[in-house]
């Protein structure tokens, strides 16, 4: 079997742009590249690797983690799958609680017990322990101490709107270094600076890495479209360079 990139994209159900990106980061290289035409070709081994990639993506593994799984002989694949299974079970249980809560709401019952705030509180504590001594964290605490619940919700909605626009750009085929996408990175940086703390390029670069490294952030951003977090991270990397 030998397929050019467009044929392989159609066969596997991914975009040509995605295949170019996978080649760029070393996740899935073409079987060979014609040195005269520059055309990329894929074969049976490419298909097997793509199937593995799609499997782990379906389980919400980050591209970085997938690369480790597929490339490192010392990586404990069974352990990774076991941990991911635990996460999926927790998500399943939470969804089941919410479904029951919705049924209860229809009947006029109190549904607040369905929403466990422990994870949020744990995350706040984790952030304090990790960043509590930094200038940005102190500035954040000072600036937001009088924010009302409505204020927090409005700001969260505004930031979510920016990520939604990133997703639209990605789905429309825009590149991370395009003017349109770079203007969104600037808007994100300005939003953080105006409402939380001064977001320097150094801090922004760290956020870009966190958006893909921390599953909680990645999942929240990817709700707009799978791959949005990776797209935002790449756009921030371009911006900060």
Q: What is the fold's blueprint, element by element?
A:
Elements: E1 3-4, H1 5-12, H2 16-25, E2 32-33, E3 40-42, H3 44-58, H4 63-71, H5 77-106, H6 118-131, H7 135-144, H8 149-171, H9 179-195, H10 201-213, H11 215-222, H12 228-240
Antiparallel strand pairs: 1-3, 2-3
Helix pairs in contact: 8-9, 8-12, 9-12, 10-11, 10-12
Number of helices: 12
Question: Overall 3D geometry?
Answer: globular
Cα Rg = 21 Å
Termini gap: 41 Å
With strands numbered from the N-terminus, the spatial order across the biggest sheet is 1-3-2
Structural class: mainly alpha
Reading the helices and strands in chain order gives: EHHEEHHHHHHHHHH
Mean pLDDT score, rounded? 80
Textual characterization of the structure:
The protein is globular. The protein has helices at 5-12, 16-25, 44-58, 63-71, 77-106, 118-131, 135-144, 149-171, 179-195, 201-213, 215-222, 228-240, and strands spanning 3-4, 32-33, 40-42. Mean pLDDT is 80; it is low at 109-117. The protein is an all-alpha fold. The protein has a three-stranded antiparallel β-sheet with strand order 1-3-2.
Features of this protein?
12 helices; globular; single chain; 241 residues; mainly alpha; 3-stranded antiparallel beta sheet; 3 strands
